[in-house]
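Methods, example record. To illustrate the input and output format used throughout this study, we show the complete record for LLM class flavin-dependent oxidoreductase. The sequence lines were provided to the predictor; the line carrying structure tokens was produced by it.
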Amino acid sequence: MTTETPRFRLGFLTHVQGRDDDPARTYRNAHELFVAADELGFDAGWVAQHHVSAGGGGLSSPWTFLAHAAAKTTRIRLGTAITILPLEDPIRLAEDVAAVDSLSGGRVELGVGSGSSALEYAAFGKDAARKRELNSENLEVLRRALANEEVGTPGFRIQPPAADFTGRIWQGVFSGDGAAYAAAGGSNLLLNRAAYGFDAPTDEVQRPWADAYIAAWSQPHRPRIGLSRFVFPAKDRRTALQQIGNDVHAAALRTAESGAFPKGLDRDEALRRFHSFYGHPDDIVAALQRERVLPVATDLITQFNPAIPDHDAAIRALELIATEVAPALGWEPATKPEPAGA
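The corresponding predicted structure is encoded as:
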């Protein structure tokens, strides 16, 4: 498949989840995914922040996690998709981001968004009804802090001083207006693996958002569109379903309780609602070649969530993505790390 960009970056996203009550093992396994992805040539590894496990993940402190990942990897970029910005002090967050960026040699990608859990907002004493407003306010301060401007009070700048973050701040959006707003602010675009609240296929819903983003872009540097997709290659469809089918179905039923999906979905419809690509690598390649947003994406971000496959199966899936799926779509592994701010 040819894309409208010379080369897309390949990433993977983990929500840092496990099946047992051993968080140390879950975190260790997630770090092993980063190491494996680094060795396989993935361009970026992403984590999602969740303060409550019911929200779909087990990582509340992404920058602590990424600092450890920085020490275990050599070239892969390290990002959040997303950090829940309204629940953060933006100056304090900028300090963490700058520190991890310095430790990693300039490999940080910062994705932010407003999140969706009312419980998380209540726990942090924030008004969920103001989440978009809080997100915009905090993003303005965060940008200034990472530009090494005075923030908080006259004479204060963060330390360590931040490197150039032009082109490294991303926003997760769920509408065409949100995409245009992200472009107006100079943020890169993050599109979720599923479009909640819509009956149409996710890529049909999201392609106009991507087009609105491109149309609104006016910055001198190249815009980036990160496309998150559920991709789980295996020996065949049956083997893949053994690893992911029940988890995806259960997640869809939970999602239906909030009204984002219809109630009573069967497994096949649950997989469709999560816009899932699974089975033999050849079948996944053929399906991704029909994906409507991928031709304008600069970053393909693969993930297994909401499934929690066995660790060995997850490692094998990463191998198949890097050696069979992505190359068939035109991706080539980078031969050296990208420079900071690339």
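Annotations derived from this record:
The mean pLDDT is 95.
The first helix runs from residue 23 to 40.
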